[in-house]
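Section 3.1: Structural characterization of target chains.
Under the original work plan, the team committed to producing a structural model for every single-chain target entering the pipeline before any wet-lab resources were allocated. The record below documents one such target. The sequence was received from the expression subgroup and is listed exactly as submitted; it comprises 257 residues.
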Amino acid sequence: MCLACDLKKLTLDKEASPSKVNFQRARRAENRYARRLRQIAEHIGSLTEAVYVPSDFDSARKLEGLLKRYADTLDPWARAVGLRMVTEVEARERKQWADISRAIGKGLRRELESTPVGGVIRSRMEEQVTLIKSLPLDAAKRVHELTLEAAVRSTRASEIAQEIMRSGKVSESRAMLIARTEVSRTATELTKARAERVGSTHFIWRTAGDSDVRPTHKALNGKVFRWDDPPECDPGYHALPGGIWNCRCWPEPVISD
C-alpha cells in the first residue's frame, strides 16, 4: 500500500488547500517582483547605451565600473524589495493555513501561530538582496569577459559590440528567471516550516498540470516524499517542489492524525 494511503492525511480539498491556493496566488506576487527586477535590467540597458562606444575599450571599462558601483547603491532598495516580496508571500501563506486551522482545532492553531517562520523570512530576504545585486554585477562581468575575448581572440569588434549592447536584454531575462524561481521557493520554504511545525514529515508532489511541466516533474506528480529528503527532480538536482529554477510545482503537506 502506498505511503499516502498509510498516513491519515489532513483532507485539504482543491478549494481549501493552503498549498495550492498559495501557489496560485504566488503567481501574482511573481509578476510584481518581476516588474521591480526589470527596472534594474532597464537601467543596465540605459547605462550601456549612454556609456559604451563600439570599438572603444576605454568605454567598456568605464561601463564595467559603473555597473559595479550601481550594484553597491542597490543594497537598501534590494532589501526593501526583497522583504516586500517575502512578506507578501508569507502573509498569503499564513492566511490560508489560518483558514484551514479553524476547521482543525485549537491545538493545531496554536502550533501554527508559534511556527518559527521568522528565520525563513530573514534567510529568504538576504538571498534576494544577493540575487538583486547580482544583476548589474553579472552584467559587468559579462562586459569584462566580452572585452577580454575581443583582445585575446581577435573577435570581430562588431560582434563584441553587438553582444555588449544586449546587456539590458540579458539582464532582463535573468531578472525574470529570478522572479519565477524565488517566489515559488519562498512559498515552498514557508509551507515546509509550518507543515513540519504541526508534525508533517512528508509531502505529496503536485504539478501545475499543464503542457509546460517538465517530464521529470510530471513523473513525480502525486508521489510522496520526505521534507528532509527531496527527490531528484532534474538530473543531478534534488529539490522540493518549487525549489528549482522555473519550477511551478508545489508541495501538499501530509499530516498524520
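The two ends are 18 Å apart (CA to CA).
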